[in-house]
Design goal:
alpha+beta; 8 helices; flat; 476 residues; single chain; 8-stranded antiparallel sheet; 39% strand
């Protein structure tokens, strides 16, 4: 006879808790998966639209329309241009696969039937969020100007020295906002109101720099607020100027006493002598020359001088402009550099004179150049005075020709007491001797400033001091 264990007197029931937990976990997982899938598609951040360049005036140059969405991505984009009662469709995209970003190049000048005058550019972008998506609509009111400025050359130079300066006089239409000479990546701005009796004429000084190929030529340009531009080729015969090449051996003493102290990094100062020199000659020199270029690109418009520049009195030229120097260590070439000025020597701590009237734009220490003064003479022309032992002028001072600036010295990388004298035009080092040469100024600059044609036009001028005074090996 069988028996049951019935201590409680009732049958045992199986617990339902595990089933409930499993059900809840399943539901939670489903909700989580749904949230993971649907949540991002419920985002409420609308697409972004950026139109460049900014400004109301638009010309022949295209606009860039950048549309982006960092959430679900772009689903549709339309770009239209309205002018009066006419709407021009520029773009209309329905994207099967949403995109994070899309860029449109909008050449309004090529839209059929477009006219100059007011218009409205409209960009509508919608993302791929659920329901109808988020939408952004951007409208920009524009003024279409498709006509470039006029540009007429009045006077030019038949001859320009290699490394020297040319002068042009020209006219542009009143809508011009930027004009001058473009020479590769370098720009030489034009100045209005400088030609006597011709307030509508522009004057520009430009350089065929020492480091530019002999067969390269610049362009005279004029641009309006809408970005339309017109160009004229600048033609001239390039007259050869002889520049020297020299080899300079370095000594351990020179590197230790003159070069190493210029390095701000104490660790670099402890390096091998050749490494110390290269660090200064490449790194610090580059920094210093970039600062000079930046300072000498910020020119005062008016011409502040009226006659030839003067060489430091009683001085002797010890080193020429654009000398290509090769530095050697134990007979081995380790680096090169161009010498962008003249080295002028007299006696120690000789009183230093301003080469012409102008305004001081820099006075202080300048790395390899040591104590330095830079003077703005107007029209983009500057003079630089370096290695000074004393500076007696301040930034902003207005100077007369031959006014004392300080005293010569041997600061910076100077091995002995002398003046490093440089001339810069709109950030570019140029041949200094032209500006000492009264005949060169009379032949090339004076006629244009006075609104008359120079007698030298149409015939080769006599060999000027600019050709007579520089010598050495022929330029490559």
């Amino acid at each position: 006879m069988s028996s049951r264990n019935t201590s409680s007197g009732t049958p045992r029931r199986r617990s339902r808790l595990p089933f409930i937990f499993l059900l809840l976990a399943t539901v939670a997982g489903a909700l989580g998966a749904a949230g993971w899938f649907v949540g991002p598609r419920l985002e409420s951040v609308a697409p972004q639209v950026v139109i460049t360049p900014e400004g109301e005036a638009v010309g022949q140059a295209p606009l860039q329309v950048q549309v982006s969405d960092g959430g679900t991505g772009l689903r549709s984009v339309t770009v239209t241009l309205s002018q009066g009662d006419t709407e021009h469709k520029i773009a209309a995209d329905e994207l099967v696969q949403p995109l994070r970003a899309k860029t449109y190049t909008v050449a309004l000048a090529k839209v059929p039937g477009i006219k100059e005058g007011p218009a409205v550019l409209k960009v509508a972008a919608r993302d791929a969020a659920l329901w109808r998506g988020n939408q952004t609509v951007v409208e920009r009111r524009l003024t279409l100007d498709l006509t470039p400025p006029t540009l007429q050359l009045v006077a030019d130079d038949r001859y320009v020295n290699f490394g020297g300066v040319g002068v042009l006089v020209y006219k542009t239409s009143a809508d011009t906002v930027r004009t001058g000479v473009q020479f590769g990546t370098r720009f030489f701005p034009g100045f209005a109101g400088q030609v006597r009796g011709h307030p509508d004429h522009w004057l520009v000084l430009f350089a065929h720099a020492y480091d530019v190929p002999a067969d390269a030529r610049p362009k005279l340009v004029a641009a309006d607020a809408a970005g339309n531009s017109r160009e004229l080729a600048v033609r001239y015969e390039l007259k050869n100027v002889n520049y020297r090449k020299s080899t300079l051996p370095l000594s351990e003493r020179f590197v230790r006493d003159k070069v190493a102290p210029l390095l701000a990094d104490a660790t670099l100062r402890q390096g091998a002598p050749r490494d110390v020199f290269v660090a200064v000659n490449r790194g610090l020199r580059k920094d210093n020359e970039e600062k000079i270029a930046a300072l000498t690109r910020q020119a005062a418009p008016p011409m502040l001088w009226r006659s030839a520049f003067v060489q430091l009195s009683n001085s002797k030229v010890e080193a020429n402009f654009a000398d290509e120097r090769t530095y050697t260590w134990n007979g081995e070439p380790i680096d090169t550099a161009y010498h962008l000025g003249y080295d002028l020597s007299v006696t120690k701590a000789y009183p230093l004179e301003a080469a012409n009237a102008g305004t001081v734009v820099f006075a202080g220490d300048l790395g390899i150049y040591g104590g330095t003064v830079i003077i703005d003479h107007g029209l983009g022309l500057f003079t630089l005075y370096s290695h000074l032992s004393a500076i007696e002028v301040q930034v902003g001072a207005t100077l007369a020709k031959k006014q004392i600036l300080g005293k010569t010295g041997q600061t910076g990388l100077a091995a002995g007491d002398h003046l490093h004298y440089g001339v810069y035009l709109s950030g570019v080092a140029v041949l200094p001797v032209e500006w000492w040469d009264a005949q060169w100024l009379e032949d090339n600059l004076a006629p244009k400033l006075e609104g008359r044609a120079g007698e030298e036009v149409g015939a080769a001028p006599a060999k000027s001091k600019a050709q007579r005074k520089v010598g050495g090996k022929k330029r490559r």
